[in-house]
Amino acid sequence: MVENLFSSFAAAIAQPDRVFLAPLHREAINFRRAFDFAGRLAHVLASRGVRRGDRVVVQVEKSPEAVFLYFACLRLGAIYVPLNPAYTAGEIDYLLADAEPALFVSTPEREASSRAIFPRGPVLTLGADGKSGSLLAEAKDKPGDFTDAIVANDDLAAILYTSGTTGRSKGAMLSHGNLKSNALVLKEFWQFQNTDVLLHALPIFHTHGLFVAINVSLAAASSLIFLPKFDVDEIFRQLPHTSVMMGVPTFYVRLLADPRLDRAVVRHMRLFVSGSAPLPAEIFTRWQERTGLTLLERYGMTETNMNTSNPYFGERKPGTVGIPLPGTEIRIIDDKGDAVPQGEVGMITVRGPNVFKGYWRMPEKTQGDFQDDGSFVTGDLGRKDRDGYLSIMGRGRDLVITGGLNVYPREVETCLNMVPGVQDSAVFGLPHPDLGEGVTAVVVHNGEGELSEAAILASLEERLAKFKRPKRVLFVEEIPRNVMGKVQKNLLQEKYSALYTGGEAQKPPA
To answer: ω into residue 16 within 30 of 0, thus cis?
Structure first.
């Protein structure tokens, strides 16, 4: 089948006068203007020598024009490669060498350093204000009409690099067919209509903010209120004008901490989606009590887009990420590749049209992560309940093996988050002279009442077997997370690496 992902957004193309993006402090942009702008940018890329299949690496701040640049790459048949604006010059140097782009788009402020990193060029710039940068200057006199490239479903639309918190960053190759299938499935599963207005406060270098939020909105010809970042005050100002919000758990934690959150302020909302990191059951329950609405948690990853979701109609179970999306198959397997009995923990595998083509220029890594039937081994641990709902138990590499027994951090974190006074927690393994690894926890106190390490450990006695309980519970002001809300356990392991082996007390307080 041959169809450009951009061309598949027929609903939006057929309604050119509908508002697409409403940026903060800027004029609203309809579909006609957005697609015209994308056409002009596509002409700029082509004039700079970018051809079908070439990579375009983009490290810019969030803006409508950055979204239109993504569209331009689709229309040209080029491969869009967005990078986190927070990446350092050293990180960008590696990624540029790996991707070998035909063009690098940076910010005006980083133009000199970008040219130094990418001397073979070309380098263009794009400012977040919609006015500055050489890319916009070159697009000014270009025509808006552009004939979309004819591409196959398997042709690459984007490469998204994994965070690289452990080892070398990997480029996940996502095809036009991958992104198109997922957008159309989510549109139906979450009941998106052209009357919806999505409150967008996510970054757009990540699959959540770029592909889920924007592609699904395009598939439904719905609108987005486009915020540069998550800001509690701005969220409350915009909520009355929206119907859907997508966020990470941290968004909902911060909104719950604000007294303005009540049923009246969300009365226009039909859906709140949570993803990119585990949603604590306590937050699920508190949100329901405060707003009368139920958060919808889903499960996806860079390599597969979205895999599962709690249903739009039907029970949304706290602590689960729902059921497989239509067309997606989820299996839980043991270390031999065999399915585990229902209710047992194993490795999650995914098969479906949403699953990526592999890692850019890493054939051995790609081959090792796929089974013979085409299933992708995610590296995530999970289990299914009797109704087929999936619970994520953590990353396989996060598994703690203590005294020869497996401990799944997510299970311990769930129990810790139920302790009165605990606002947030993270569980990880550290080298232990006797047990191999010691189960270790860090917690954030919510400031209500007294809370001690001994009290927390005592509260876990009836909830967890002894080997699962943390050997130590450490108090921290904040748990390190990346921009998408995922806990950076590698930083915690580095910081506390000598806790049990460096002469500190190995026994918890009495």
So the answer is: no
* Residue 279 binned pLDDT confidence (cut-offs 50, 70, 90): confident
Domain count for the chain, please give it: 3
Residue 487 CA, chain-centre distance (Å), reads: 13
74 in Cβ contact with 5 (< 8 Å): yes
Compute the average pLDDT of residues 123-130. Answer: 96
Q: Is 397 a residue whose pLDDT tops 90?
A: no
Say if pTM beats, i.e. exceeds, 0.70: yes
449-459 tens-digit pLDDT: 899 999 999 99
What value does the mean pLDDT take over residues 24-45? 97
The pLDDT, as a whole number, for residue 2 is 66
Q: If DSSP codes are grouped into helix, strand and coil, which group holds residue 500?
A: coil
Assess whether 134 and 203 both reside in one domain. no
CATH code: domain of residue 410: 3.30.300.30
Question: In terms of C-beta density within 10 A (0-12 exposed, 13-18 middle, 19 or more buried), how is residue 319 classed?
Answer: middle
Tell me whether residue 263 is in a domain: yes
Please give the residue range of the domain that contains residue 455.
399-495
Tell me, what's the pLDDT at 411? 84
Output the CA angle 381-387-389, nearest 5 degrees.
35
Tokens 């002279």 appear where?
Answer: 433
What CATH number is associated with residue 204?
Answer: 3.40.50.980
Place of tokens 């940018």: 41
Q: Are residues 216 and 139 in the same domain?
A: no
Instruction: Let me know: does 42 contact 48? Beta carbons within 8 Å.
Output: no
> Are residues 202 and 124 part of one domain?
no
